[in-house]
TrEMBL record:
SUPFAM superfamilies: Homeodomain-like, Tetracyclin repressor-like, C-terminal domain. The keyword Transit peptide does not apply. Pfam families: TetR_C_31, TetR_N. Keywords: DNA-binding. InterPro entries: Homeodomain-like_sf, HTH-type_TetR-like_transc_reg, HTH_TetR, Tet_transcr_reg_TetR-rel_C_sf, TetR_C_31. This is TetR family transcriptional regulator. Residues 83-184 form the Tetracyclin repressor-like C-terminal group domain. The keyword DNA damage does not apply. One of its GO terms (molecular function) is DNA-binding transcription factor activity. It comes from Nonomuraea aridisoli. Gene3D superfamilies: Tetracycline Repressor, domain 2 (1.10.357.10). Residues 7-54 form the HTH tetR-type domain.
Length: 196
């Protein structure tokens, strides 16, 4: 690995151990095996740009792992939409448990976005990719589908909310069955109304 890759790897370790706001340039350099702090400026321009890249790479790794996990679940031809929804969310929630440090670092970065324009811009750019990716993986809607952004936004809102609950109160956070049951209640014909 070169200095650039060592710095990204070191930044990931720091994000998981200390969070976004508490990670220093020296922490990253030390975690990267003693790479000089000047290399951060040379390769990334700033500590924040490096942390943003490390967080993005970690999130992409998670997304690829989740996509593979979802693809590995055998499709049940007899399953209805809610059953497929519950199965997908069981995999997502399982991934929360194994990637808890990533989500803690993500929420830490979200907190910084109100005070750091570079962080906010980076997160905003990533959100569009996340929305379209979720619409594709969970909704089966490709990026050109007219409802992809809308459906992806729904899944992103649900994902962020469920992640927050698992970080703060994992014992009472909703299970995949809870989510599917709630969706069934919300969309029950007696409660449905035209939204225009």
């Amino acid at each position: 690995m070169g200095n650039r890759e060592d710095l990204i790897d070191g930044a990931k370790r720091c994000l998981y151990a200390k969070g976004y706001a508490r990670t220093t340039l020296r922490d990253i350099a030390d975690a990267a095996g003693g790479v000089g702090t000047g290399c951060v400026g040379y390769h990334f321009g700033s500590k924040e740009a490096l942390l943003n890249e490390a967080l993005s790479q970690a999130a992409r790794d998670w997304a690829e792992e989740l996509t593979q996990a979802l693809a590995a679940v055998p499709a049940d031809p007899g399953a209805d939409t809610l059953q497929r929804f519950e199965t997908a969310w069981a995999q997502i929630i399982k991934s929360f448990e194994t990637h808890r440090p990533l989500w803690a670092a993500t929420f830490d970065a979200l907190g910084q976005s109100a005070h750091a324009e570079e962080v906010r811009r980076h997160l905003a750019a990533g959100l569009e990719q996340v929305r379209l990716g979720l619409a594709d993986v969970l909704g089966g809607l490709g990026p050109d589908h007219p409802d992809a952004r809308l459906v992806g936004g729904f899944y992103e809102a649900l994902l962020t909310g469920v992640m927050a609950q698992y970080l703060v109160d994992p014992g009472r956070a909703p299970s995949s069955h809870d989510l599917a049951t709630a969706l069934a209640v919300i969309t029950a014909p007696r409660l449905r109304r035209d939204v225009r």
